[in-house]
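From the shared-data thread, chain only:
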Amino acid sequence: MRSPILQPARSAALYFSLPRNREKDRTAIEETFRRLVELVNSLDEEQKRAAEEGLSEDELALFDLLQKENLGKSERERVKQASQDLLASLQDRLRGLDRFWEKEQTKADVEVFILDRLFEALPTPPFTPKEKEEVARQVYQHVWQQAASGMFSEAA
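Structure, as tokens:
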């Protein structure tokens, strides 16, 4: 049996197919890049920010509420993680509650749930207990508004 290298017809066919394969690869790469540019251009500013942060739009909304000026890189990452964890735990918690915003008891339960999660998740310092309480109030208002308008339940 002859070696493929010594079979001139097969070697020539392989040789002449290489430039075409490179051309197909280049075309595929260019097409993929063009579609990616179109996708990026179609995103609105919040979607772009969410993508840059590696968060969903809902996580970004919570992240913005939890943000504080002058956070270090590790503290900022902890706040980002807290926004992701809070959203996931809220979605789980609210899944079992029917229209929580209409009943005083369930509203209070959700508010305490948020406060407890934020006291655990937000770093101390730089967040003081008073700041955590204020942030929890803002998050609760956001969740209440989203849920009452039907937006939060869609994400859950």
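The chain has seven helices and no strands.
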